[in-house]
From TrEMBL:
MF terms (GO), sorted A to Z: DNA binding; DNA-binding transcription factor activity
Residue span, HTH gntR-type domain: 25-92
Record-linked Pfam families: GntR (PF00392), UTRA (PF07702)
Keywords, sorted A to Z: DNA-binding, Transcription, Transcription regulation
Protein name: GntR family transcriptional regulator
Entry annotated with the keyword Cytoplasm: no
PANTHER family per UniProt: MANNOSYL-D-GLYCERATE TRANSPORT/METABOLISM SYSTEM REPRESSOR MNGR-RELATED, MANNOSYL-D-GLYCERATE TRANSPORT_METABOLISM SYSTEM REPRESSOR MNGR-RELATED
Gene3D superfamilies: Chorismate lyase-like, Winged helix-like DNA-binding domain superfamily/Winged helix DNA-binding domain
Gene Ontology BP, a term: negative regulation of DNA-templated transcription
Length: 257
């Protein structure tokens, strides 16, 4: 049952937890998320960002943290530096621009689309079947951590995500109640390797059997599937993520520079 209160059933060997969403990650990541939410909400007049010193004071962090957060947003094409003007917001920034970049998590996208967002998380350590072994490039039977997340729009399931990593590369065994919603933060905390890039396959699907079942979709209902493979700089595969999205709640587009 979905609940707004965190709980933990022991979790080391797996478990299910339902909880409200809350900020996590480094100070830079948290500052970036707060600024991003303000950008999407239109909190900055005339699409101009406050000075770094002002942002640092507002958020209670150092100017170095603010600068790193702004640099991340600039690299993604969401803001730009203009000589004589300062930092300005890309006029095309909308929640739909951000989903494929994973700058904003699904919970942020749902909230900015007008829904009350919550998440249900289930973790399990299991032996890789042929399909999972192929996704992770590990031998069949290897122990893997599989995390299943259902993001709700109000009370309706809107996005279903399955993240998987090989257990041999984990630093510790994450507790289900405190597992980061964001896979990139998970890598930073628990994976021995460093994430460099991801390759995303985007495909339309029709709900059939297990596909779409977690979203309570009728057979034949269209949905969008994002399959991500995550790599180190050297090209070693770190993990896999598959997101099924009910596009009644979320749409995506891309900013190109």
């Amino acid at each position: 049952m979905k609940s707004d209160n965190a709980s933990n059933d022991g979790g080391l060997a797996g478990g299910r937890v339902a909880r409200p969403l809350r900020a996590r990650g480094s100070l830079t990541d948290q500052a970036k998320e707060i600024i991003l939410r303000s950008i999407i909400a239109g909190d900055y007049p005339n699409d101009r960002m406050p000075k770094e010193d002002d942002l640092a004071e507002q958020l209670g962090v150092s100017r170095t943290t603010i600068r790193a957060a702004l640099q991340a947003l600039e690299r993604a094409g969401l803001i730009a530096r203009r000589q004589g003007i300062g930092t300005v917001i890309n006029q095309h920034v909308r929640p739909a621009n951000l989903g494929l970049q994973r700058l904003a998590g699904f919970e942020v996208l749902l909230e900015e689309s007008g829904y009350v967002s919550s998440i249900e998380v289930e973790t399990e350590y299991l032996a890789a079947d042929p399909e999972l072994a192929g996704h992770l490039a590990v031998p069949q039977g290897s122990e893997c951590l599989v995390t299943r997340k259902t993001f709700y729009a109000d009370t309706a399931p809107a996005v279903y995500v399955v993240d998987a990593v090989a257990a041999e590369w984990l630093v510790g065994r994450p507790d289900a109640a405190h597992l980061p919603e964001n896979l990139y933060e998970f890598y930073e905390r628990y994976h021995e390797m460093r994430l460099d890039h991801s390759v995303v396959d985007i495909s339309p699907r029709i709900a059939d059997g297990d596909v779409g079942a977690a979203l309570l979709l009728k057979r034949g209902t269209p949905l969008l599937v994002l399959h991500e493979l995550h790599y180190t700089f050297e090209g070693r595969r770190m993990g896999s993520s598959i997101a099924e999205v009910n596009d009644h709640y979320l749409h995506f587009n891309v900013i190109r520079r």
